[in-house]
């Protein structure tokens, strides 16, 4: 299998309220104004050299190994997926997820299946997965396993739902996303350390918006607990700044870097994938970041999950783009699944509007069939 399901090293950014494109057009120095005061005030000697002079990349900011240390409460929707066998330990972290409700997490399909990635999928045994939410440091994991409220809560997975078209065939990894339902809901916190990501069901133009973002090489961030280029793990959540790349560029670049590798070339499918490059030297996809969210533009729209690094040497190679599984255009499948599996769990439904439920029933099958 040439496509190695790697993972995104962490990115830095402060989660804030949704800002409109009018904010950007008003003359703010984006993305510099996208940073908060603390991020803008980091001393120059701590900065890494920019890999890219792309205008959408920010200036020098603090870098730790291949990413930036996230602050507490900065990304309250990001969760760590832990899979343990004998006893829980922080090295059990294997993927990243995004909290969509207090009971449902979105992650990469390849994180949640065993064996071949094709329908019908053989899913990982749900009880073997713990979800750590509301924490940036994995060192709290063993203590937090018994925690029922506050920051750093842990829940056992109860069920797993894979998009039926998730598959790896002919060197194409598509529809690389799925949902995890927790055994019991997380409990929201007044401290602000845990909060589901805003991801509306009713986004009729989302695919067109994301397509435009790729052509405009929009600025993005992603985050995770994955390895660095030297193979060392970090217990602290890290973030990474990136820019999207046009679909044609992604397809040609990935073909070029994998065509001579055993099992290659890897195929970039623009209807199912988007790709991006890190803004700083050494920022790459590495093991442990799969499933992490990709947030793009001034409003930090949730557009994809970390899927794979092309070929067999993308970790540490900042010239190779990172591939994300697109979730734009699949909002109806995601929220229909959450709704259907939550009929007796009203506490788990967040941001699910009544009008979206009606629309969903009419267009779900058609919409998901049209998108390859």
UniProtKB/TrEMBL annotation:
The keyword Disulfide bond applies. Residues 64-339 form the Peptidase S1 domain. SUPFAM superfamilies: Trypsin-like serine proteases (SSF50494). Gene3D superfamilies: Trypsin-like serine proteases. Keywords: Disulfide bond, Signal. It comes from the Eukaryota. InterPro entries: Peptidase_S1_PA, Peptidase_S1_PA_chymotrypsin, Peptidase_S1A, Ser/Thr_Proteases_Immune/Dev, Trypsin_dom, TRYPSIN_SER. Pfam families: Trypsin. GO terms for biological process: proteolysis. Residues 1-20 form the signal peptide. SMART domains: Tryp_SPc. One of its GO terms (molecular function) is serine-type endopeptidase activity. Belongs to the peptidase S1 family. CLIP subfamily. PANTHER family: TRYPTASE-RELATED. This is Peptidase S1 domain-containing protein. It comes from Apolygus lucorum (Small green plant bug).
């Amino acid at each position: 299998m040439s496509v190695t399901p790697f993972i995104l090293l962490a990115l830095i950014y402060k989660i804030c309220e949704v800002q409109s494109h009018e904010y950007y057009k008003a003359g703010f120095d984006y993305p510099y104004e996208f940073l908060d005061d603390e991020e803008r005030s980091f001393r120059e000697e701590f900065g890494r050299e920019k890999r890219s002079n792309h205008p959408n990349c920010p200036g020098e900011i603090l870098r730790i190994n291949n990413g930036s240390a996230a602050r507490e409460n900065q990304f309250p929707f990001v969760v760590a997926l832990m899979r343990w066998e004998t006893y829980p330990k922080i090295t059990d972290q294997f993927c990243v997820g995004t909290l969509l409700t207090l009971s449902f997490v979105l992650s990469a399909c390849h994180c949640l299946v065993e064996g071949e990635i094709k329908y019908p999928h053989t899913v990982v045994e749900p009880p073997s997965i713990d979800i750590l939410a509301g924490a940036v440091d994995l060192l709290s994991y063993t203590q937090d396993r018994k925690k029922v409220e506050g920051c750093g809560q842990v829940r056992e997975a109860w069920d797993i739902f894979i998009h039926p078209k998730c598959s790896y065939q002919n060197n194409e990894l598509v529809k690389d996303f799925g949902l995890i339902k927790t055994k019991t809901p997380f409990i929201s916190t007044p401290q602000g350390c845990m909060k589901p990501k805003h991801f509306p069901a009713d986004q009729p133009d989302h695919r067109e918006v994301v397509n435009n973002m790729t052509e405009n090489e929009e600025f993005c961030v992603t985050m995770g607990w994955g390895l660095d280029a030297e193979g060392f793990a970090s217990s602290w959540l890290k973030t990474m700044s990136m820019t999207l790349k046009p679909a044609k560029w992604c397809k040609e670049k990935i073909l070029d870097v994998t065509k001579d590798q055993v099992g290659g070339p890897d195929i970039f499918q623009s209807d199912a994938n988007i790709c991006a490059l890190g803004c700083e030297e050494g920022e790459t996809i590495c093991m442990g970041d799969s499933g992490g969210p990709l947030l793009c533009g001034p409003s930090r729209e949730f557009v994809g999950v970390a899927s794979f690094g092309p070929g067999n040497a993308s970790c540490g190679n900042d010239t190779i783009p990172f591939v994300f599984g697109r979730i734009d255009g699949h909002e109806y499948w995601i929220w229909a699944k959450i709704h259907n599996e939550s009929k007796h769990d009203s506490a788990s439904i967040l941001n699910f509007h009544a009008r979206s439920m009606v629309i969903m029933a009419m267009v779900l099958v058609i919409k998901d069939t049209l998108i390859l």
